[in-house]
Amino acid sequence: QEEMLKKKLAIDQPTGVMNKHSLIGAVQKLLKHDAVKYFTLGMIDFDDFKEVNDRCGHLTGDKVLKVFTDIARLHIRKNDLLGRFGGEEFVFVFMETDQQASLQILQRIHRELGRYFEKDLNIPVSFSAGVIYVDQAMYPLLQHYTDLFIDVDRMLYQAKSNGKGRAMSSIGEIRFNTDIVAGKT
Q: Which of 20, 46, 114, 157 could cysteine-pair with 88, CB 3.0–4.6 Å?
């Protein structure tokens, strides 16, 4: 029963993915045990989510988050991680996956999510993302695991400042509604 309770406490109940506490613990464990040679960390934040809640209601906002996590789980592998980081912010850990492949996964999730809601809602559902690559050579150089979240959040902020429905990484920017990766940053 205690083990079952621990598992339940590690989950964000509305979405069924890891909560912030368990996600951070999993990332810390990754960095300590060198079990994975490299990974890509992606952080997404929904665009204009307040408008979804204000115009369509909070239950619809909750549905958007749940549908997003359901779609995301279909596109990530079993050993990848997905967790809710904040209100409408989510973090992906793509194990032994480079930035290009991670961006393609996020693009597929974005496309499918948009299509799911395009008939039901009169406003577009989209998100922006920041993506960073982390390999074992970097582990000892990190002062603290929070350095990773600061870096990926910076990339996310840069994507959002460039517009909606896009991702920013060190290999460039991608607009989710196209297949074009822009020049390097």
A: 46
